[in-house]
What does this fold into?
Amino acid sequence: MSAPDSAVRRRFWSRFALAGPVVFLCAALVMCGGALWLPKGPAQIDNLVLPIVLFPAIWAALFFYAYLDRRLARAWAVIGGLSLVHLVVIGVYVMQTMQAAKAAGAGGS
Amino acid sequence: MIKLSQERNKSLLAVHGWSAVFLGLLLYAVILTGVASVFAKELGDWSSPLSAPVADPFRPGTDRMMREFAASVDPQYYEEFFFFPRAGDRLYAFFHKHETDEKGKPRERGVAAEFDPLTQTEIERREGTDEEVDAGDRANALGEFMVELHVRLHLPNPWGLLLTGVLGLAMLVAAITGFVVHRHLIKELFTLRRHKEKLLSARDTHVIAGTWNLPFAFILAFTGSYFSFGSAFGIPAVAMVVFGGDQEKMIETVIGNPPKEDKTPAPMADLDRMIADVRGRTDATLGFVTVQHWGRADSLVTMFMHYPEGKLMGPTYVYGGATGEFRYAKPNLGLQPSTGGALFELMAPLHFGNFAGVFSKSAWFALGFAGAYVTITGLMLWTLRRREERGWRHLARATVWVGYGLPLALVAPAFTYFPLRAAGEMVHGPMMTSFLLVSLAAAGIAWGMRSLTLARRVLLGLSGLALLLLPVARLLTGGVGWGGAFAGGLHTVLALDIAFAVGGLLCLVSALGRPAVPAAASADSELDEAVEA
It folds into this structure.
């Protein structure tokens, strides 16, 4: 196998991984994280309902971006960055909730 | 026309084809069963009618039936209760509590009963988890078989839902890329070239059906993947992050009924009076009633209505269960209108096509059928273009197997259902066995016959014969006769008997219509004819 062939193959699999499982994971993180930063709306439920209802749209937008961006490295950076930001938002919220529960438990006892 | 660089257009064309090739056959199965599921309620009405049509499933006397049912049920199941009309407009009622299974997944356990609204008597009763209660259901089994195949391909949760969710996303990709790669969209809506090159003719037919069907395919793919992922993964994931995994709490929050607890025992108010009251508030018909905390002071009765005239959403009406007083009208989700609630409410009518009765259902049936046609012709085109490569010939055979064998396998369970139901036996397991056996036999025909065209014709002919014999199977196992159905006003029974007979005849005519390609003909010409068909 020649060097250019191997580079093309590596690029194909990198794109495949990005547009496939990585984008799906990113869409899932955006859906969960969105429940924490989206406005609640007049009925106090928009933040919970919209990310679930719009999950196919979130996935489709990320998929087509990851698939079509000519610069693969940039696509990785954008999808990775978006995932990381939402991972941090979720992590901070979960830790805060756990600390609050612990404090409430300690106060109760 | 959407202007794209040649490179981008090529990329999108590639993803359009590959998404269909990898998941096309499963997608076809989901679309075809979805087409049948549009009329799941009618299938129940056809296979399990009551002695006469039911003008009003919630007529006065419902309160007495439900009250007597409640008195015979263990009060631990009073946590939640619902009742609504199902096959033949039997009133199906289920008292249950919420619990988690060994793996921590939420489930319901309780007692279900079916009532005849005409005689206002109990027909049968089942007890256990929601899954066990459903497994013993005979009246709705035929429609439910289609729905289960459509929703989760009869795979266990959550894998079936995740798979159909992925199929929905694949269909979404195919619909969006189909829209973008058709460089002359308007022109292609009306272009059908009649020439000797079969590949081009077949391609035109695929493109015309696909182009007209694009907006519908997009809607179905979007709403379908939402329904699959929403329950299998969306609600658990968001509940995990926001509510520490408590799905019940999340559902309670989005539904918006205030969970003010008052466990004081209190007799239930008259359900008949509440039903009469709600009918005075709206022209929409009543579809579904839930009761939270039966027999307690904090009991709430929620009335879900069918779509009001000319609308795709409408309010639900909430009553105090103990007082019978009207409390408030609310959207399905939340206590006041919201963007999220409105989008959620739109998903069901857009996916099920049930917003304008049999007319919208027929339109959804026809459009869904066109979607199935586009999927299968797309796969045939793909294999035809690659006919020189031997590996693709297996996909061509698989396409004939699923394309023409699946309809046959879908009809087969009905022939198991009718005699077993008449004998009072359980029906679900044997129905699945007959489906799998006929699928296997269809695979034998698709791969066993040298001529692909002949295999297609045999499968199509057998499907036609099976459809034609469906009314006979129904009649021979104690089903109501045509005279009785006509005199009794059971129009769904007559309409579906006629529809199956006509569908069967059309399949037979199509199978016998043209001379079969001789066995000695080349595989290329067989593929040509298979695609043209």
User: Anything to note?
Assistant: Residues 516-524, 526-533 of chain B have pLDDT under 50 and may be disordered. The beta strands of chain B are 80-85, 91-100, 106-116, 121-129, 286-292, 300-305, 316-320, 326-330. Residues 6-48+156-225+372-532 of chain B form one domain. Chain B has 18 helices and eight strands.
